[in-house]
Structure formats: C-alpha cells, structure tokens
Amino acid sequence: MTEGDWEACFHEPAQGSQNIRPTGFSRIINNVLNKKKEMANHKSSVKRIRQDKKKALHNKYYAKTMRNAVRKLRAMTDKDEAAKLYPSVQKMLDKLAKTNIIHKNKAANLKSSLCKHINKLG
To answer: Cα(62)–Cα(109) distance, rounded to whole angstroms?
Structure first.
C-alpha cells in the first residue's frame, strides 16, 4: 500500500456527511487483505490474520480521527466555538475508550486537559 492510500484513509469526513468512512476505505481494506498471504497451518488462523488486519486498520482510522479532533480543539482560540466542539470530542473519546481503541485513563486525561484549555480561553 502506498503512502497516498494511507493519507486518503485518514482524512476527516466532510461536515454534515453521514458517511464516517472515506470513500476509498473499502478499497484500502481489500488491498491490505489481498497482500501476500502469511503461512498458516489452519484455515481458522488464516481467517484470524485477515480479521486482525481489518480491525487494526479500522482502529487506526478512528484513533487518527480522534487525534485530529483533539488537535483542532487545542488550536481554537475562541472560547464559544471550543465549548461547542467539546461535547462531540468528549463523546468520541468516550466511545473509543469503551471499545478499547484507547485506554480509559487516556480518554479521561485528554478530556481533563481539553476542559482546562477551554477554561483558560478568554
């Protein structure tokens, strides 16, 4: 997979868009899954390898999207705009912690630091 494919995979979805996955996401998954097959002794282990690759790519996408949202919130200088964006970022962090994509303490630490950042804004 080329570097351009990865960049296409991790862009932020357009505002108002119901589709949270980029358009090329399924193509990228297929490219990852159809790469050189690992040597496995059982059909179940081949399937497990295939599933693990797909889950890893899925988790990377959502972790990257979360990092972009946190970065966007930290870059804001207007308190009202930051306060409006904070609940959606908080919801994203909670969902990722619930599904073990990030650790629950990391989510708590990020929410706390973002809240402090918003309170500092003037």
So the answer is: 18
